[in-house]
Each structure stands twice: as structure tokens, then as C-alpha cells.
Amino acid sequence: MDVNTPAVLTGPQKTPLQGIRGWLILPMLGLFYMLYQTIIMMYLDILQVKSAWHLVTNEQSDFYVDGFSNAFYMLQMAQGILIVLLAWNVIAALKGLKIAKPLFIISMLFYTVMVVVSRFVFPNIFGIEIEYSYIINVVNSCFYCFIWIPYVLMSDRVKQTFIH
């Protein structure tokens, strides 16, 4: 062996990062968490309004609120759309579809908007008591967006995984 000849090390080649492993599992768990939270949010909204529904929707009642029923139905419809969007996102991510990446970003942003609307805007408009413990939900959803949207946009693993 000549000392002037460079040594060539033949080690195992690194395989490209792909699949839902590593850090990518955390956003996937986040999708399931958002789905769970949206279902709970929808249920709690219905529970909160159920006891006073006949008072706020009856025009002869002293507690009648004009437009409450339409706004509540719109809120529930938007939460239903979010549930479908999150379920579609989970399916697209598990299949490795290319649509999963933009769908993930849209889902996170829509979830954050829905938390704010459901927990603060809707109650404020119609004079319903706001539970300020829901601030944690808003902070969590914003924090989640600020961490995972850049990861989804920049990560090589995400680029290698969602290619179909």
C-alpha cells in the first residue's frame, strides 16, 4: 500500500429520510390531538348552549338573542368542516400524499382560528361567559403553529415523505 494513495472508506450509504418517523411523528400526534380537541370543543359548545337554547331562540322570551341560532349553527358547521379536514389530513399523511403538506398547514391555521372563534369571539358577541382557562388552548395552538409550520415547510424528511 502506497502512503501517497488516499484511503477510500466504504461505509454504509445514508438512506434518504422518509416515512413517518423521527420528528415527523410529533406533527402526526398533533393532528390526532387537534382532532380530539375539536370534537371536545364541539361537544362543550353544544353542552353549554343546550340548557339555554329555548330561552335565546324563542322570540317571546326575555332572553331572546337575534341571530344566535344561525351563528351557533355556523360555528358547529365550521367545526364539522375542521373535523373532516383533520381526518382527511391524517389519511393523506399516512398514505404519503403530496397534498398532506399544504393540508397540514391549512389544518393548523384553521384549528387556531376555530379555537379563537369558538372560545372567545362567539361568547363575546352573544354575552356568554368566557372561561379564561381556554387561553391555554389558544396559546397551545399558536405555539404548535409557530413550531410545526416552519418544520413542514423546510424539512427534508417532509419533502421525502410526501411525494405521491
Mean pLDDT: 85
How would you spell out the order of helices and strands?
Answer: HHHHHH
**Over the alpha carbons, how many angstroms does the gyration radius reach?**
23 Å
Number of helices: 6
Number of DSSP strand runs: 0
Structural class: mainly alpha
Task: Indicate the percent of residues in helices.
Answer: 55-70%
Largest sheet: none
Give the overall shape: elongated
Give the uncertain stretches in residue-range form. none
**Beta-strand residue fraction:** under 5%
How many structural domains does the protein architecture include?
1
Distance between the termini: 48 Å
Pfam family, one: DUF2569
InterPro entries: DUF2569
Keywords: Membrane, Transmembrane, Transmembrane helix
Protein name: DUF2569 family protein
List keywords for this structure.
single chain; mainly alpha
Description:
The chain contains six helices and no strands. With 164 residues, it is mainly α. It has one domain. The termini are far apart.
Report a brief summary of the structure.
This protein is an all-alpha fold and 164 residues long. The chain has one domain (22-161). The chain has 6 helices and no strands.
Give the topology.
Layout lengths: L24 H26 L2 H5 L10 H28 L4 H27 L8 H20 L1 H6 L3
